[in-house]
Amino acid sequence: MTTPPVARQIPHTITQLGRTRHDEYAWMKDDNWQEVLRDPTLLRPDIADHLRAENAYTQSVLSGTEDLQAMLVAEMKGRMQADDTYPPTPHGPYSYQTSYTAGAQYPVYKRYLTATPTAEEVLLDVNEAARGHEYYAVAAALHSPDHSLFAHAEDTQGSEIYRIHIRRLAGGAVPLPPVENCSGAFVFSPDSAFVFWVWRDSHGRPARVYRRRIGEEHDTLVYEEADPGFFVGVETTRSGGWIIITSGNHDTSESWLIPGHDPQASPRCASPRETGLIYGLYHQGADFIILTNADGAYDFKLMTTPDTAPARANWRDLVAHEPGRYITECMVWSGHLAWRERRDANTRIVIRSTDGTTEALEPDEAAYDLTLVGGYEYDTTELRYIYQSPTTPRAWHARDMASGAETVLKQQEVPSGHDPAQYRCWRLMARAADGEQVPVTVLGRHDTPIDGAAPLLLYGYGAYGHAIDPVFSTRTLSLVDRGWFYAIAHVRGGSEKGWNWFLGGRGRNKPNTFSDFIACAETLVAEGFGAKGRIVADGRSAGGMVMGAIANMRPDLFAGIVAVVPFVDELNTMSDASLPLTPPEWPEWGNPLEDVAAYDLIASYAAYEQVAPRAYPAILAMGGLTDPRVTYWEPAKWVARLRAHNRAPRPIMLRTNMEAGHRGATGRFDSLKEAALIHAFALWAIETAPARQD
Questions:
Q1: Which of 122, 229, 252, 607 is the most buried (most CB within 10 A)?
Q2: What is the pLDDT of residue 186?
Q3: Where in this chain does the record put each Peptidase S9A N-terminal domain (predicted)?
Q4: Which of 632, 642, 507 is nearest to 574 (CA)?
């Protein structure tokens, strides 16, 4: 198929808050979309035919890269361990472990008695569970505290509607009645008698917590959230002292408590929600440690309160707020507390004992990542963490918080070979339009000239306070080893420089995210890491929103743009309260149903609304048919409108995964095909780009 599909245009006018907009491709949204999430075969035939035609066109345009894609998959696969095992995690008499057998797509969950490690017991072979399914994902796999039960939550459509399977491990792993319509979140009660799970409503929102006695089919409603903008979750404390129900949106939270020794008790509110107040509870001894932004602590601090008096009035500072030091998470044990903090796009881990002494773990590299690793034990002095950088493979460490002794539990191996000394990582600062300094992480080979000749792939996200950490990626090496530079733009909207960095790219400040990305691209060009018209931009989900914006704002900078499950129909989506994420995301973008200023701001940058006659670079948009987060019609509508307005000969392409959702393919090797397609498109985009006009 050498000519692109021409989507029919059906006039459709929307009047809202005195504003009028036109959406000639609104027909691509199936009125039956909620049912399609559960059963993709129900998609309206004309829409299905259009998406397949788009897939055929994309395949035709990139057909010359098929051998390259196969080569890239082989390279990426060669950097992965065919059989891989992760460090076992102790819990009581057992050690629990995840591993991959040679050539397997999915992991195997198993355990063994720590005293007899050769006698392994398979708890779940995901490869067997996935057999016969085009899509298969496990959201959580947990054993009960008494080690007698095992459960996992599975999704077989990509719609993030999960079924929980529970088994008794004695007597031949007897299955129990499954739990349906779960968000994927569940926990066992500390006494192992119940499972608490989160129910999704018809709009896909986690809205209720139910309790089920093990072995029964009846569910008891424990908590229901009335605010459609709040999502609920459930967890247990490491101490086993409490079951905690959480509810919140992006800037306000609330917790409800159930005593671990009395799981049938009614939950009581720890401290009532206050708009703008975020808090999380961690149990230690007779106290709760609280991670919160209370009292104007925008980069968060740690407080403490008796577990018998968790209300806000009783909170007392434990680790004071320090601007520029963003505390992202914490973990507690019976005698220690550890937290992860972020400064200027790098992280460190701080350990604090109950006597108040502290110790910080902070490597000496330009860009790196430290991640706390969870565990089951409460009465232990062992802390686990992962260290990695763009040049350095992951290493799992165990540190004795009392003695300081440290052990490397596992070092990631690259079977095809990897010498960190052949690579170099830079941390640059790009000057934004308003003078802010935006961090940029760059990876390249030592022998790649920094003279503007090398192609550049620039990745960005910038939303929800989610930071893009500088981690090790074996997939990225396929570009870097071909003489590319790979860069991450740590734009506002993320939290790389603290919570204010997030707020600086949120709501009315959202345009900063897009101008930051452009500033990063221009700085990289000025420093010799790329050249105008020889950059490929890449973003996923809310990062796809950035791709849509910069395609309209500065198409001249880029040879190609990759937008994976891109949020590009922002105004229509934020005006549709029936969609799963719309009410919870009004604090993030604004509510265009009620706020004229929010409507006008979103309309000013929304990718779909701002498409106009101009010369666009080559674009590859990728969607998922059963994606409940960024619905399939967003990239489909965007591509149709782009193509109708494009004034350049460069192709605008759409690839929809008809068997997957937001996360794409789930198998560890199947997912390589999508990564190889993106890399092949990037290489093709540079090779076919118009000559530089410098």
A1: 607
A2: 98
A3: 5-412
A4: 507
447 burial level (CB within 10 Å; 0-12, 13-18, 19+): exposed
Q: Is the pLDDT of residue 678 over 80?
A: yes
Strand 456-460 relative to strand 358-361: parallel, antiparallel, unpaired? unpaired
Please check whether residue 638 is in contact with residue 569, taking contact to mean a CB–CB distance below 8 angstroms: yes
For residues 30 and 336, what is the distance between their CA atoms, to the nearest angstrom?
A: 53
- Whole-angstrom Cα distance, residue 163 to residue 181? 6
pLDDT score of 62: 97
Q: What is the pLDDT of residues 457-496, one digit of tens each?
A: 999 999 999 999 999 999 999 999 999 999 999 999 999 9
Could you report how far apart the first and last alpha carbons of the chain are, in Å? 35
122-134 confidence digits (pLDDT tens)? 999 999 999 999 8
How high is the pLDDT of residue 659?
Answer: 83
Which string of DSSP letters, residue by residue, matches 185-214? EEEE-TTSSEEEEEEE-TTS-EEEEEEEET
Handedness of CA 326, 331, 332, 333 (dihedral sign): negative
Range list of H helices, 354-434: none
Residue written as token pair 């191996």: 413
User: What are the catalytic residues?
Assistant: 541, 627, 662
DSSP letter for 494, please: B
Residue 629's pLDDT is: 84
CB 630 within 8 A of CB 661: no
pLDDT at 264 over 70: yes
The rounded percent of the chain whose pLDDT value lies above 70 is 99
E strand or H helix at 126: helix 126-130
Separation CA 540–CA 252 (nearest Å): 25
What confidence category does residue 204 fall into, taking pLDDT thresholds of 50, 70 and 90?
confident
| Average pLDDT, rounded, for the chain | 95
- The angle, 0 to 180 degrees and rounded to 10, between the axes of the packed helices 45-61 and 633-645 is 60
Tokens encoding 377: 């034990």
Q: Given strand 423-431, what is the order of strands in its sheet? A: 423-431, 437-445, 485-489, 456-460, 535-540, 558-564, 618-624, 652-657
Q: Which helix (H) or strand (E) holds 639?
A: helix 633-645
**Full-prediction pTM beyond 0.85?**
yes
107 within 8 A of 122, measured Cβ to Cβ: no
Structure tokens at 471: 């981690």
Segment 311-330 mean pLDDT: 97
